[in-house]
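Rotation project, supervised by the postdoc (A.L.). Task for the rotation student: set up a whole-complex structure prediction and record inputs and outputs verbatim in this book. Inputs entered:
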Amino acid sequence: MSVNVLNAGLLTTIQDIGRTGSQKFGVLVSGAMDSYSMRVANLLVGNEEREGVFEITLFGTMLQFEEDALIAITGGDLQTTIDGIPVANWRPLIVKKGSILKFGFAIEGCRAYLAIAGGIDIPVVMESKSTYLVAGIGGFKGRALQQNDHLSFGQLTESNEKVFARIEQLGTPDWAVPHHLLIRLTSTQTIRIIAGTEYQYVDDASKQRLVSEPYVVTPQSNRMGLRLEGKALLLTEKIELLSEGVTFGTMQLPPNGKPIILMADRQTAGGYPKIGQVITADLGSLSQVKPNAKLYFKLLSHAEAERELIAKEELINQIKIGIQQKFQ
Amino acid sequence: MSDQKSLDIKALGDSAIIIKLGEGIQPSVHQQVKNLSFLLDEYPFDGFIESVPAYNSLAVYYSPYLVYQSTHGFQTDGTPLEKVIDYMNTLAIQMSDLPVTEGRLVEIPVLYGGEFGPDLQIVADTHTMSIEEVIEIHTTPEYLVYMIGFAPGFPFLGGLDERIATPRKLTPRTSIHPGSVGIAGKQTGVYPLETPGGWQIIGRTPTDLFVPDMSPPSLLQSGDKIKFYPITQEEYDEQKKVTTCQ
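Outputs recorded:
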């Protein structure tokens, strides 16, 4: 069971929930940018939530299946087709042997996730299948996919087979996961943040600017970080920090006053002032913004951020139970 | 708990905290970082993911959802953050009972100068010294590994003798060979992987600092000490053969 890469597209990598546990050795976490979409894609085909999936960026990826396969596509809407016929996201589908799955151009969001029942048969490196591009570790040969790559699927589990059998019997379901509750795919977004560890050093006018002015995601943004353009933010005093831990969603302020938000491929430590922190519940939505998208920020309390995170986890639990019930 | 000073803890978003254990770059402060990291590895809380030691702080990553669900090991019913803070403060009481541990001493062979250390002469000239003096000064101290970061297995070392501290190159090299030993300002270090960089490169080690298939993947860990020693080209080639065969 395998798939052939006819066109790798702009950037297609294998990602899972991330490579945690080795940051103390300088190893990046990596993982899916929009992990909510990644987790749901796996649940839809009966995989473990944390299994590796294809992360497809913006456009162009074309895959040919060499065997019948059960798949699900989530995340951004990249106008996906199978043999030229449009397919719907956020539900399980069967792709027939020889069929070509093609990702068009992103009309909503910018990253699609493709899960394949049985997962992807690649080595687990430091407990993860995620691709660590800079170090050439993990994923498929430590790199982004290229034309003519040949990826094998893993063995189907009982849970994969159950879904497979039902979809073969009943066809593509007419239901889809209510993804708008999980992530937003609009081109202008309000992203919720909480105060960062050095927020108190931001001057009052800049604090106001941060939550009222738009910030544009520049094309220099990538899986490491989003570089924002907008009115510069200032600190009340120059502060010298020693390198220390950072995390997904950390908003750093370099000396030019233009914030950078650290994303999945961030380094393990940083020395710039950390003025804000995107709440975990909004990281999926933030990962779906395209270059030149406009962002607004809203400040929440830490307790509110925790409540939003817990609500999203409970939503995923509900989605999981909902899917399981459909395939009983 | 009453006579115990609370830890200096700040939220790093909703899923991590940073615990600051002192100021500046000092072995005594770093010992505290190491002790707390050790205790946390020995007694992890439900939902704990990992911790990352830095110069004077420890970042602790966790799943707030698991902390929220857990009733085991936490003393209060508060928010996930409150539960974690309370847990860490309780854990920290044991810190003073821990013996001061000497880090492992890792000896690292270096072929100084020549093709592998193109900037050794620059460092020597900057301080009007001979190449031999630079090597002598660089191989004398035991350097403390404060943290691993920047790149996998890359050690941030303390203890460079200021007599050979040298500014970075004005134009960084686009590619530095793995194993390169360099100086940048008051820092010295070894590049585990090929990366661009502006350090003055004074030599190269045949020892692999990062091997993804090994457990742990990094030769060095926060809290280790390292000492460099000079080797000849023949010794370099010999050792390189051995590491390549492994």
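Student's summary: The first helix of chain B runs from residue 27 to 42.
Supervisor addendum: The two ends of chain B are 51 Å apart (CA to CA).
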